[in-house]
Amino acid sequence: MVLNLKKNKKMTKADIVNEIAKNTGIDKATVLKTVESFMDVVKDSLSKNENVYLRGFGSFIVKTRAQKTARNISKNTTIIIPAHSIPAFKPAKTFVIQVRK
Fold first, then answer.
1. pLDDT in tens, 25-73
2. Measured between alpha carbons, how far is residue 89 from residues 20, 42, 49, 83, 92 in Å?
3. Is 89 helix (H, G, I), strand (E, B) or coil?
4. Angular region, 56: left φ>0, alpha ψ -120 to 50, beta rest
């Protein structure tokens, strides 16, 4: 069986702004300012270790990675990677169902 895999298309911030402006009738400059403000609020909240929950869409959460030991194969040394936090996105169930279709 041969699978016909399509290359994933990409949507940029400019594409999102254009779509929202087209769908709402709001000018692109206002939409751009709103989208950038949204992204700033999410980044600021996560940097304060506060999760962001958007019902029906998903959650922007802070995950903590435990300390671990890694190896540098080229130098044959062991290094310790300290515990650290990373941002993550967990989609809502309705989001996952829509994407699966």
1. 999 999 999 999 999 999 999 999 999 999 999 999 999 999 999 998 8
2. 22, 11, 14, 19, 10
3. strand
4. left
